[in-house]
């Protein structure tokens, strides 16, 4: 099992920046990829960005050029730097960790990001 704890959400004006953090604990040696997803009210959860153990990254088109995902393996932490935030980025952001060997995904509790216009 993997436990994930997110932090860094909050309220920011449009054009501002936030950095989200996700600290992993438990069976972290088996994690292949980590990522950020978000869910706005009345909408389905969607992928924001992912990063593999080899640091290969993938981004949703809507955040390319504005968001950056990174990981610090020594701290077992993944980050999401969000710049040029827009009101449509408002959502609960969830951290996820995938373990290919066990074919499972663990989720954090989520952190609210609100962007005011």
Description:
The protein has strands spanning 2-7, 10-13, 18-26, 33-39, 46-52, 57-59, 67-72, 77-82, 91-99, 104-107, 111-116. By secondary structure, it is an all-beta fold. Strands 2, 4, 5, 6, 9, 10 and 11 form a 7-stranded mixed beta sheet that branches. A 4-stranded antiparallel beta sheet has the order 1-3-8-7, with no helix packed on it. Strand 9 (91-99) and strand 10 form a beta hairpin. It is globular.
Mean pLDDT: 95
Strand segment tally? 11
Globular, elongated, flat, extended or rod-shaped: what is the shape?
globular
Bin the helical content.
under 10%
Series of secondary-structure elements, N-terminal to C-terminal: EEEEEEEEEEE
- Beta content: over 45%
Rg, Å, rounded? 14 Å
- Cα distance spanning the termini: 40 Å
Q: How many separate helices?
A: 0
Please give the oligomerization state of what you see: single chain
Major beta sheet, specifics? Answer: 7 strands, mixed
| Class by SSE composition | mainly beta
Question: What's this entry about, in short?
Answer:
The chain has strands at residues 2-7, 10-13, 18-26, 33-39, 46-52, 57-59, 67-72, 77-82, 91-99, 104-107, 111-116. The chain has 117 residues and is mainly β. The strands form two sheets. Strands 2, 4, 5, 6, 9, 10 and 11 form a seven-stranded mixed β-sheet that branches. A four-stranded antiparallel β-sheet has the order 1-3-8-7, with no helix packed on it.
């Amino acid at each position: 099992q993997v436990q994930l704890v997110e932090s860094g959400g909050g309220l920011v004006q449009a054009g501002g920046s936030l950095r989200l953090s996700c600290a992993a604990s438990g069976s972290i040696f088996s994690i292949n990829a980590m990522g950020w997803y978000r869910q706005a009210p009345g909408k389905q959860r969607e992928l924001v960005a992912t990063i593999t153990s080899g640091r290969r990254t993938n981004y949703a088109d809507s955040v390319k050029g504005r968001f950056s995902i990174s990981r610090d393996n020594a701290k077992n932490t993944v980050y999401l730097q969000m710049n040029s935030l827009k009101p449509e980025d408002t959502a609960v952001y969830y951290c996820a960790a995938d373990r290919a060997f066990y074919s499972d995904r663990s989720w954090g509790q989520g952190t609210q990001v609100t962007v005011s216009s």
